[in-house]
Amino acid sequence: MLKPNKLVNSNFLSCLDVSVEEVLNILNLAQNFKNKTLNIKFKDKVLGLIFDKSSTRTRVSFQVAMSRLGGTTIDLNPNTSQIGRGEPIKDTARVLSRYCDALAIRTFKQSDLEEYANWSSKPVINALTDLEHPCQALADFMTIKEEFIDFTKVVLTFVGDGNNVANSLILCGALLDVEVRIACPKGYEPNPLILKKANEIYVNKNLLKVTNDPYSAVSGANVLYTDVWSSMGEESLQDKKDNDFSGFTINSDLVSKADKDAIILHCLPAYRSKEITDEVIDSKSSRIFEQAENRMHVQQALLSCLLS
Ligand code: CP
Ligand code: NVA
Questions:
Q1: Closest-approaching ligand to the CA atom of 227
Q2: Residue 292 Cα to chain centre, angstroms
Q3: Distance 127 CA to ligand 1 centre (A)
Q4: Strand extents, DSSP E, the chain
Q5: For ligand 2, is residue 166 a contact (CB within 6 Å)?
Q6: Beta strands 102-106 and 155-159: pairing type?
């Protein structure tokens, strides 16, 4: 019978924290939660949410996922808690993990997230850092798996900034041995350590490609994915990045170079008409809102594994 397998690592800070078997178990559980064929409860368990950056999808999908599991969440707004005053992470983590059964944290530095995990006695989940967005990658691969029966044959092309979303896609793609092509302007390539790690993980080598040419990257691809050009915290760079990313918009012309049955993904929120046009986001090929829904199902699955 399908059941949540306890993760070997107690935290989910990075896609590097899980094995391929664990990812497949999470995706399988998520599909069963979505189809309502699985009913797992963690009555009275509490998930603390610490968000140093804005969020709609991640915050609400964690709240609903926890509620569906029979537990609750506490929204620990840094501005109304002592976190905003600068209480040391090691003190906050030790206290909150005595109250809560897990913590989902959205912050800037991956090292701050790691500091929380080092001092927390309960599981810590990465709800987005500047380096990674691993919960997003799980939802992305769930969406891809729903669409393509043998999803390991899929070519996934990410057009845009080599940022947190791209980094987690690369690592999850490496775990699942899926071909991932990244097309970004010069100077916006993904983190070199992430690329190195991914290349070590891939069973089939040469499945990870980074190029500065979006047209060659999308040729024959089954999935086209993009994210904002300027991430949260990069507001002052917006004019420069808008200029540097000219030619990297996913529009109908670029989509026409992909496989005819290609689907379109975006983690959202989007800057419509910058990284993606209205006609593509709202097209029949778009699975962007299914992808957003799947955030909730994979997080319900992830929480089941972490709380088991
Ligand atoms: N995709 C995503 O993480 O969205 P939010 O910033 O709204 O949580
Ligand atoms: N790269 C974006 C993702 C938002 C979900 C950011 O970090 O702002």
A1: 2
A2: 11
A3: 9
A4: 46-51, 72-75, 102-106, 124-126, 155-159, 179-183, 208-211, 223-226, 263-266
A5: no
A6: unpaired
Q: Which ligand is nearest to the CA of 135?
A: 1
CB 287 within 8 A of CB 265: yes
Question: Which atom number of ligand 2 is nearest to the Cα of residue 57?
Answer: 5
Q: What is the set of active-site residues?
A: 106, 133, 136, 227, 267, 295
Backbone phi, psi, residue 102, to 5°? -165, 160
What are the backbone dihedrals phi and psi of residue 202, each rounded to the nearest 5 degrees, phi first?
-50, 135
- Protein residues whose CB sits closer than 6 Å to any atom of ligand 1: 55-58, 128, 136, 267-269
Q: Which ligand is nearest to the CA of 54?
A: 1
Superfamily of domain 15-132+294-307: Aspartate/ornithine carbamoyltransferase (3.40.50.1370)
Domain boundaries, the chain: 15-132+294-307, 136-291
Q: What tens digit of pLDDT does each residue of 61-118 get?
A: 999 999 999 999 999 988 999 999 999 999 999 999 999 999 999 999 999 999 999 9
Q: From ligand 1's centre to the CA of 182, what distance in Å?
A: 21
Between the CA of 43 and the centroid of ligand 2 the distance, in Å, is 32
3-class SS at 225? strand
Q: Which CATH architecture has domain 136-291?
A: 3-Layer(aba) Sandwich (3.40)
**What stretches in the chain show pLDDT beneath 70?**
none
Calpha distance 117→62 (Å, rounded): 18
Domains 15-132+294-307 and 136-291 share a fold: yes
pLDDT of residue 151: 87
Cβ proximity of 119 and 89 under 8 Å? yes
Choose which residue among 56, 110, 232, 245 to substitute to test ligand 2 binding: the one with the highest number of ligand atoms within 8 A of its C-beta: 232
| Beta carbons within 8 Å of 284's beta carbon, 6+ residues apart | none
Structure tokens at 79: 């501005």
